[in-house]
Each structure stands twice: as C-alpha cells, then as structure tokens.
Design brief:
alpha/beta; Rossmann fold; Alpha-Beta Plaits; four-stranded antiparallel sheet; 14 strands; elongated; binds adenosine-5'-diphosphate; binds magnesium ion
Length: 325
Amino acid sequence: MAIIETRALAKTYGKIQAVRGIDLNIEKGEIFGLLGPNGAGKTTTIGMLCTIVRPSSGSASIAGHDIVREPAEVRRNVGIVFQDPTLDTILTGRENLKLHALLYGVPSDIREKRIKELLELVDLKDRAKDITRTYSGGMRRRLELARGLLHRPAVLFLDEPTLGLDPQTRARIWDYIRKMAQKEQTTIVLTTHYMEEAEQVCDRVGIIDHGRIIALGSPEDLKESMGGHMVILRMKEAPLDRIRALPYVSEATQNDDIVEITMEEAHLHLPDLLLNIRNVECVETRAPTLNDVFIKLTGRDIREEEIEDSGGWVESVARYRQRGH
Ligand SMILES: Nc1ncnc2c1ncn2[C@@H]1O[C@H](COP(=O)(O)OP(=O)(O)O)[C@@H](O)[C@H]1O
Ligand SMILES: [Mg+2]
C-alpha cells in the first residue's frame, strides 16, 4: 500500500475550485514534487493532506489513516514546513526545537539526543543558543526543517521550502532535504514553482494546473515525453508550415522573431533543417525542461505570472537570465 493515497480529492471555496479531484499514490521514501504556477492548488492540496483544510469531496489517507476520520493519527505521521516561517523568534534555536518536541510528545529520554542530532544535520549547532530573530532567512528555514523532522514523521510536507532564498542557500537546503530523506527513510512531498529544483530533487513530479494533475512521472520521463530536443532559431518570417512538415520535427511555435522547434536527434537533423530554411540569424539547442512540458500541456509559461506577481526585481532578473536571455 502506498503511504499517501488520494482519491478524487477536491476542495472548493465558494465558487473557486481550488483542487478539482486529485488521484495520487506516493510510495514510502519517495521525494514527490507538486509543481505548478501560483494559484494552481498546491498549498490547498498539502493543507488537506496534513488535516488543516477539510476536503469538499473525495478522500485521502496517510499511512493507512483517513485524513477526515482519523486526523490525530494522521498528524502523528506528518511533519510540515510552511511557506511562511512559523518559528517563535524570541526563543533560541534549541528552545524552538524543545518546545516542538514537548508539543509532539517526543519522549524525554531521547529528546536531547535528537535535538542535538538535528541541529548538527542542519548546521546550526553553533547558533543553537542564539534567539532566532538574529538568524538569516536561510538559517530559519533550516531550523524549520529540523523542527519538521523532530518527531520522526513518516511524511514531511514542505510548501515552497526555498521560496525567496538565494541560490546558494536553496542548493544547501535541498542537500539537507535529500540527506534527511535518505537517512530517515522519510517520504517527502514538496511544492515548488522552481522547475530546476523539481527536476533535480524529485523522484517523481506531478504537474498541477487549475487544481488538476495534468502530468505525472519522473522528471526524465516527463522531459522525454516532449519527443526530442529544443532548437531555437532567431529569424523573421519563419515558414512554420514547412518546418512542421519536416519528418523529424514534432512541434514548432513562433513568438516574435523566436522560433522554438522540438525535434528528434537535433544533432543529426540540424544541418538539414538549416538547409530547408533561409534567413536564420541565430541558432541555439538545448535539452527540454519541465517548463517546456508545462508549456506544451497548457500553452502557458509556468513562470509568467510569477514574474509579474513577484515584487522583488532581483528575483525577476534572475528568472529572466535563466530563460537564456
Ligand atoms: N482560504 C481560501 N479561501 C478562498 N480561496 C482560497 C483559499 N485558499 C486558497 N484559495 C484559492 O484557491 C486557489 C488555489 O490556491 P493555493 O492552493 O494556495 O495555490 P498554490 O499554492 O498552488 O499557489 C487559488 O485560486 C486561491 O486563491
Ligand atoms: Mg502555495
């Protein structure tokens, strides 16, 4: 039996269908990512699974316990790290962990040992006696991760655990998460809208849009489903029909003077492609990403809304650069 099972799990808020019937089986020890744009229903899905949000219909169980009928058992089996930090900032790092251990009834004979282990795991041993108000964003997030693991939950939910953190800190946090998952055999369900992270960290990814899972599989399988490499041409007035008719081309789209072509074995067919079309100013090839998968399925870029919504220009510039401009 899968450790997490959902059947037609759904949540509506008035007229808003936040989650529209999700069916998932997640196995013990898996790192599973819910990837989707803002408002896709990621947080609501996690909220239902950790018994904070009551489903409108459908069902789900964690470690065999129904999320509606047996919420206490479910809570014993899950740890949560939320999008917004929930640490008590007037306590020290160690006190925050101790408070949580008491709340969750971690037995006193193992409490101190476990707190020590976790502080070491997230590299906060030296700062354990400082109040967390003095911690950097990355340190707080790491302390939250440690706290989420304190009662040895079978399942750890991480809602956008690296949102707003700088790239180095993000990379370190993912290192910790992977280490923890391996060491503790923890099942991890995380949400993110950083595609690169989902690709690198997750065993399997569910791409979620408008409350539905629209694609499910390992990052490799999802990218392979694109049917080849991406070839990007810069040119005016591209003969799209002629390009699409070429036997090795699976898809071609145009945006201003940028033509994106998905094709099999780009390294073999690129010379022929360039013989068939003239006026190409610039050529670039790359492997498909999960964002390409998202675009293929929805016609939208997963990052569009984010760039508009995000107030932070540093973030926007970083995203913009990652798109290869
Ligand atoms: N408590 C709530 N009341 C009303 N609408 C909500 C509430 N929580 C979420 N929503 C709506 O449900 C949809 C999904 O939200 P959410 O699960 O937070 O998405 P995500 O985490 O993927 O950004 C959005 O349209 C959001 O506005
Ligand atoms: Mg969210």
